[in-house]
Amino acid sequence: MLDPEQPLHVYEVKGGVPPSYLDLEGLLGVWPEADYTYLFFTAPADTTLRSFFREHPEFRLTRHYQLDYGQWQQIAPQEPLVIDRFKIITKQQQVQLAPGEILLWIDPGVIFGSGLHPTTRSCLRALLTLYRENKPSKVLDLGTGTGILAIAAAKLGAASVEALDLNPMAIATAAANCRRNGVAGRVRLRKADAHQHLPAAELVCVNIHFDFLETFFKGTKLCRYRWAIVGGFLIQKLQEVVELLPTCAELKEPKVEETGWVTLILEIDRQRMRPND
After folding, report:
1. Domains and their CATH numbers in the chain
2. pTM of the entire structure?
3. Cβ neighbours for 94, distance < 8 A, ≥ 6 positions apart
4. Distance CA 274, CA 92 (A)
5. Which of 49, 57, 73, 99 is deepest in the core (most CB within 10 A)?
């Protein structure tokens, strides 16, 4: 993991830059986001990028940020970060584990998902709640990021986990984290759009922004699964999310709340579906 005081130079580029174009000296990582591509360097790259834009005039620089890595990627002030039975570290170190505790070693790089954000914490707690009574063997993780939820599911006993993300940098980061945690053989990572056809699973984890949930809950996608963990929205959106749920989904109590962010545990029963769902 980078030092929290390591300077980061983030260049915002208008347009989706193909990975084949990005063999750039000093490039740390790439983050595609809608119509923009964010390029990460640990030193100024103005000269390198001037040459790049001369060769590729279809792209243009729109903004340049400079900040410390610690400002970009929130890291717990003290490690391990403890979330119920999970102990999370971001760099290799000796950790004492009590019986039943689970170690997650997550180096987030420049991808969000170190475990500090409330949505991540609440999803991890929801996973623990679900696995106390049920043992989903096959799990699907949408928008995996650093892979933290996929790794947690594997360590809780899932025999296979399929983890999807649109961001190739997230897939690379999650793959490295799976290897660190010894679960690479049970977690399959794939660059894919969660709006498209999704693979089968018993449990689906959806920790993505509210706009995605609006689309995901339409139709019968959710009804293909046995359970769902749904996070990524503020408590002000709770009633709206509940109203969007298809009739196949039953909200299990209690919901998990972390500083204003909410995660739901859903039990799915296709027999409750109405014909128009």
Report:
1. 7-72 (3.30.70), 110-272 (3.40.50.150)
2. 0.81
3. none
4. 51
5. 73
